[in-house]
Amino acid sequence: MRRPQRLRTPANRLRMLVAVARPPVFLLLAVYTALGTAGAGRPEDHLLLGRALVPVAAFLMFSVAVNDLADERIDRVNLPGDPRRPLVGAGALRAEMTAVAVVCAAVATAGGFLLGPWPGLVVTAGLLLSAGYSLRPVRLSDRGAVAALVLPGCYVAVPYLLGWLAAAPAPHGRGLLLPAGLYVGFVGRILLKDFRDVRGDALFGKRTFLVRHGRVWTCRFSAAGWTVGCALVLAGAPSPTPALVAVWGVHLVAVLWVLRRLAAQAHPRREELLITAAAILGRGMLLVLLAHESMLPLGWSPLVCAAVPAALLALTLGQVRVMLRHGPLVRLSLPLPEAAAEGGSRPTGVRPAAATAAGTYGPPPPEEATARGR
């Protein structure tokens, strides 16, 4: 197997860093951080939010780099040539990704302790948890339901607590219901991630919840996570208004409809669109909650406080409709180096991305059937 071409130009290295930063995921973590600062009573302190986002961004890039390094073989099966995976799609070298992980770990730790001792400890614990999720000998990502319970600790608890602890003492009592609801809801969301990776996970013995229990039970547990998480968030939200409850209820009904369709769907393309629609609905719920927490301290009129969630709901449902009818319209991409474009870095027996998607639920080749133990 030929080594991929090094990313020599500064522009290509910058694009690699953007891919590692995963802009959509960073925006999600930024919302959790903003919810933390808003829950602590400082929604208007943009400087504090900006300072908190520095370690959050570095923590995310560390987590992505470590996971990409650990899952390189699996990604070559699930996502061959995907520009969002620099190791398999953009010719990055393992040394470059290792350097990104080391530097980002240092930046995240320093940024956390600059906010205070408790934020620093939260970031440090998150880095250790993220490393244990991906790296051996711990490698929690191979442990089915445990992985789905651990990952929200990285992507929900770390940014939320970082935002809160940067502004106020730790939440307690009823204040814990909201972060607990965000955590449980994210468990329901993260179970859907395994649909995209099921082929490589099964091939390399990664026993995810989906591989162990199948699509129907995965969708059922996901629905339970969404429902319980929604109830906990509404119970813990500060001064929940009828508009907040109604809008979140509509979002939840839409999510359950999507999951019902997903449980009965076997076409990879439709499956991908349904999972993306569920992600859009999840982001919409978070934006409504953030708007609610931000408007309350500002003393906005009840009419405006009801109109804003309704407008966000309409926007979210419109995006879901477009996604289900037309698919994604724009995608961030990186130029493939010549070696990757020629297919030189593809290992023997790995088919192109289109063939991978088409064959996800079809009969596997004999060597794959043997690897799966079927």
UniProtKB/TrEMBL annotation:
Its main location: membrane. The keyword Transferase applies. This is 4-hydroxybenzoate polyprenyltransferase. Residues 352-361 have a biased composition (Low complexity). Keywords: Membrane, Transferase, Transmembrane, Transmembrane helix. One of its GO terms (molecular function) is transferase activity, transferring alkyl or aryl (other than methyl) groups. Residues 340-374 are annotated as: Disordered. The keyword Transmembrane applies.
